[in-house]
Amino acid sequence: MKFFNIDQHISVIYDMQHLFRELGHQVHDWSISNHTWVLNKEKKSIPLLENDNWKRMIKSKLWNEFFKQYQQELKDYDGFIACYSPMFAMLYQKFDRPVIINIPIRYEHPFSFDRHDWKRFNKFLVQGVDDGRIILVANNAYDKYYTEYFLDREVVHIPSMCDYYQKEYSGGNSGFICFSRQKRKGLSARAMDKDEALGQKYSTEDLIKFSGIIHFPYQVSFMSLFEQYAMNLPLFFPSQDFLMELYARGDDILKEASWYRYFGRKPGSLIRGRGPHDPNDYTDLESVRHWIRFADYYDVSWMPFVQLFHSLSHLNSLMETCDSAALSKRMKSFNVLRKQKIINLWRDIINHRM
Predict the structure, then answer these.
(1) Is residue 165 assigned to a domain?
(2) Cα(282)–Cα(24) distance, rounded to whole angstroms?
């Protein structure tokens, strides 16, 4: 089968291209991301979507103009894929083809702060799912349950694999790289700040030389995490309790888990979801704790061997005692099984729902 995609994010669809190729399918994408250089991809010019026009898709009904402009060029595709942002699925509604939406972020972007447009997007998605035209997938458990919370429709969880770099941990004792949005006092000298050690631009070859990667996460799921896990790099994250301790005292952590917090909006979703824990009420610590358990780095079924630290002193101790080579070896063995499970899940989607 042949699939077509327009995307603002390079790695989600790039990963799908590689996985679908192994299944005997093609994915052709037009990337409008400003980061195409990272994967040596060409940035596509689509005037209809430039200058933030895509954010007004519902109000402008861009799918009518898109169909008129690209009907002939896209007529031979068997289906479409939307990733970032999921609302790009609306572009394809006049083509009468199935659409896979692979959700890597809070699905309603950019409608989070417009109740009317958010509800209209929900209606579009629910109707599409019920008609069998739209297949909802999320590459992380958080966005699976987040989307289900607002849509009341099933979302299939299929993690990203991201083994396209074909690189892996190379051993050595070069210390640990720390990814954090703020300076961390109290860490041993073995933990080096990412920007100071690597700068803003770095390669996978730079990363795999280190003994491990420490994350004070800005998000519940991010593509570089999938890439690092696929490279068998030992990974270190705060435990749920320690993460909540940092969060409660105003640490710059999980800043992008909710669009409402990221853009400095009043906490609380504009539309109601199912259940008592509003994922966008970022000031409600009980709600935050409820939702962070779905973060990728706490998902032991898909990411075992992630090392959790309960304090900075515990992290310092882990860095001294961790056998990074042995840990990486266990990750490498699991990644073989992990990829096969991911391939099988996509095969099931394509064979039984397309």
Answers:
(1) no
(2) 43
Which 8-state DSSP code applies to residue 53?
G
HEC-encoded secondary structure of 87-152: HHHHHHCCCCCCEEEEECCCCCCCCCCCHHHHHHHHHHHHHHHHHCCEEEEECCHHHHHHHHHHHC
What total number of domains does the chain contain?
2
Q: Please answer whether residues 261 and 255 qualify as being in contact, where contact means their C-beta atoms are separated by less than 8 angstroms.
A: yes
The b/e string for 3-36 (b: 16+ C-beta within 10 A; e otherwise) is: bbbbbbbbbbbbbbbebbeeeebebebbbbbeee
pLDDT reading at 201 higher than 90: no
Name beta bridge partners: 99: 80, 134
Single-letter amino acid, residue 181: R
Please state, in angstroms and rounded to a whole number, the distance separating the CA atoms of residues 299 and 144: 13
Give dist(CA 134, CA 43) in Å, integer. Answer: 27
Q: For the residues of 270-323, what is the DSSP string, one character each?
A: SS--SSS--TT-TT-HHHHHHHHTTSGGG-TTTSTT-EEESSHHHHHHHHHH--
Per-residue pLDDT tens digits for 92-126:
999 999 999 999 999 999 999 999 999 999 999 99
Q: Are residues 141 and 264 in the same domain?
A: no
Region 329-351: mean pLDDT is 98
| 3-state class (DSSP) for residue 223 | helix
This prediction's pTM: 0.95
Domain span at residue 57 reads 2-158
How many angstroms separate the CA atoms of 215 and 83, rounded? 25
Q: Which of 138, 160, 139 lies closest to 150, judged by CA?
A: 138
Task: Judge whether 243 and 254 are in contact, CB under 8 Å.
Answer: yes
DSSP 78: S
Residue 270 and residue 124 share a domain: no
Diameter of the chain measured on Cα atoms: 62
DSSP 189: T
Per-residue pLDDT tens digits for 26-67:
999 998 877 766 677 778 888 899 888 889 999 999 999 999
